[in-house]
């Protein structure tokens, strides 16, 4: 890869990493301050509700990937937003059913459960706007949305907690901030349409050669964003039926992606939920704090998948993109695990002496998160190719891991050890299968247009 082609990718990675880091730092601050202000027992319920909220927002993660994939191929923003509204409706219905169930299982108030659940459909709408911006490869704007939306979501919750309120008001304040973030994200996404209309010849996200420029121009919708200026050979505007499904933007496409994304999300959150069952209140609170290290290692390299996602959607380049992503993730993961081990003595200083017993285990939490980061990119490549088979392996690994946790985990150490081994075995199996599948797909004729060697 030439220096000219590499620099835009590095720039995009830097921008998205900055936005994602802003979002992650805001989330970690919420977790850290909540652990101190709510106490061990109060923080345990708060962290568990946040984990359930993440599970209910799985359709949001899948929706963003589906919309980004289809916007790259020419789908208009209007169709993407219609799909986002439909998915938000489904999530709202599910959240209403889950409110009393979550309240009973986690032994929290109905008000707190409802505050966590009502954020889920808003996250779906937010993901729809992020998918539009990502599909247009406007990574500067995407970084702004990622960081800004997190601040708007978390700042109100932090203020409420700082005033001495319980988890329920804080969760409702976070929901209000999320609604504001959706409005801001839509404004930014609409701005990318107007900006592209003024600079129709711009192809910063594709390779700079003439062939790639022609391919990019033919696939990007015009400034009105009502009809595409062109479509890839696999889906022509004249032959496709009307409606969102004409662009691969039907609910069925999201359900297929949800199947993959849900497996990853469930695996990443299972140990935290199980901790409320197999550990006492204090140890469950300590485990929740240790899980912050896993979340840091998990989300720190997410920009790699975001920027390389368009490349993974091209069978002829998918295997190379996966190998590049895996190499970067392994390096980042190693640094993160080492950093967790070195910084472990600082944990009680920030969170309080009650959490001192877990400081020697933070590197193990970080290792679990690093393994899940590798699994995330591997499953992301499956969504890019519209494959769902890898999800079955993840569900099998999850079922086996949870069964062992429930029967054998009786301490923080045993629980995180089982969770890490489960993540390691599942990741190794799925990565091997995904690499072989990507190589096989690259050797077969593809109707997906080649958007260039930069991957964006």
Q: What's the structural blueprint in terms of helices and strands?
A:
Elements: H1 3-56, H2 58-72, H3 77-106, H4 110-117, H5 119-135, H6 139-162, H7 167-198, H8 210-219, H9 251-278, H10 281-299, H11 302-312, H12 315-343, H13 347-351, H14 362-384, H15 389-408, H16 412-442
Helix pairs in contact: 1-3, 1-4, 1-6, 1-9, 1-10, 1-11, 2-3, 2-5, 2-9, 3-4, 3-5, 4-7, 5-6, 5-7, 6-7, 9-10, 9-14, 9-15, 9-16, 10-14, 11-12, 11-14, 12-14, 12-16, 14-16, 15-16
Described by strand count, sense and barrel closure, the largest sheet is: none
Cα Rg:
22 Å
Could you give the order of the helices and strands? HHHHHHHHHHHHHHHH
Number of strands: 0
Low-confidence spans = 1-7, 197-244, 445-456
Q: Which structural class do the helices and strands define?
A: mainly alpha
- Rough outline: globular
In percent terms, what proportion of residues is strand?
under 5%
How would you describe the oligomerization state of the chains in this entry?
A: single chain
Helicity, as a percent range: over 70%
Mean pLDDT: 78
- The end-to-end distance, rounded to whole angstroms, is 14 Å
- Tally of alpha and pi helices: 16
Describe this structure in words.
With 456 residues, this protein is an all-alpha fold. It is built from 16 helices and no strands. It has helices spanning 3-56, 58-72, 77-106, 110-117, 119-135, 139-162, 167-198, 210-219, 251-278, 281-299, 302-312, 315-343, 347-351, 362-384, 389-408, 412-442. Helix 5 packs antiparallel against helix 6, helix 9 runs antiparallel to helix 16 (412-442) and helix 14 (362-384) runs parallel beside helix 16 (412-442). It is globular and about 55 Å long. The model is unreliable at 1-7, 197-244 and 445-456 (pLDDT under 50).
């Amino acid at each position: 890869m030439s220096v000219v082609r590499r620099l835009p990718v590095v720039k995009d990675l830097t921008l998205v990493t900055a936005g994602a880091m802003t979002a992650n730092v805001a989330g970690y601050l919420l977790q850290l301050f909540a652990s101190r202000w709510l106490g061990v027992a109060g923080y345990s319920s708060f962290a568990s509700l946040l984990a359930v909220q993440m599970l209910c927002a799985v359709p949001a993660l899948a929706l963003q990937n589906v919309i980004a994939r289809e916007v790259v191929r020419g789908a208009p923003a209007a169709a993407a937003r219609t799909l986002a509204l439909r998915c938000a409706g489904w999530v709202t219905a599910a959240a209403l059913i889950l409110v009393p169930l979550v309240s009973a299982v986690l032994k929290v108030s109905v008000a707190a459960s409802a505050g966590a659940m009502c954020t889920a459909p808003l996250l779906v709408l937010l993901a729809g706007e992020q998918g539009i911006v990502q599909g247009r490869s406007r990574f500067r704007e995407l970084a702004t949305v990622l960081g800004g939306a997190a601040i708007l979501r978390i700042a109100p919750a932090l203020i409420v907690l700082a005033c001495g309120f319980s988890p329920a008001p804080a969760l409702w304040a976070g929901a209000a901030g999320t609604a504001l973030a959706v409005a801001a994200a839509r404004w930014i996404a609409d701005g990318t349409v107007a900006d592209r209309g003024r600079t129709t010849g711009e192809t910063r996200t594709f390779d700079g050669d003439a062939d790639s420029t022609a391919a990019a121009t033919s696939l990007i919708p015009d400034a009105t964003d009502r009809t595409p200026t062109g479509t890839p050979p696999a889906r022509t505007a004249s032959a496709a039926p009307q409606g969102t499904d004409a662009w691969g933007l039907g609910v069925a496409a999201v359900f297929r992606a949800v199947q993959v994304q849900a497996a990853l999300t469930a695996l990443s959150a299972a140990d935290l939920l199980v901790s409320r069952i197999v550990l006492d209140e204090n140890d469950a609170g300590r485990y929740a704090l240790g899980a912050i290290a896993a979340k840091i290692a998990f989300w720190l390299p997410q920009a790699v998948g975001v920027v390389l996602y368009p490349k993974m959607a091209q069978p002829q380049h998918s295997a190379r993109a996966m190998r590049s992503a895996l190499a970067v993730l392994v390096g980042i993961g190693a640094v993160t695990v080492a950093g967790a081990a070195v910084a472990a003595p600082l944990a009680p200083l920030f969170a309080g002496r009650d959490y001192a017993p877990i400081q020697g285990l933070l590197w193990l939490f970080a290792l679990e998160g690093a393994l899940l980061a590798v699994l995330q990119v591997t499953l992301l490549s499956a969504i890019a190719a519209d494959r769902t088979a890898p999800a079955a392996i993840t569900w099998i690994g999850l079922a086996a891991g949870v069964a062992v946790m429930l029967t054998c985990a009786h301490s923080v150490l045993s629980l995180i050890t089982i969770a890490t081994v489960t993540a390691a075995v599942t990741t190794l199996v799925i990565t091997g299968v995904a690499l072989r599948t990507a190589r096989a797909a690259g050797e077969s004729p593809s109707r997906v247009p080649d958007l260039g060697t930069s991957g964006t």
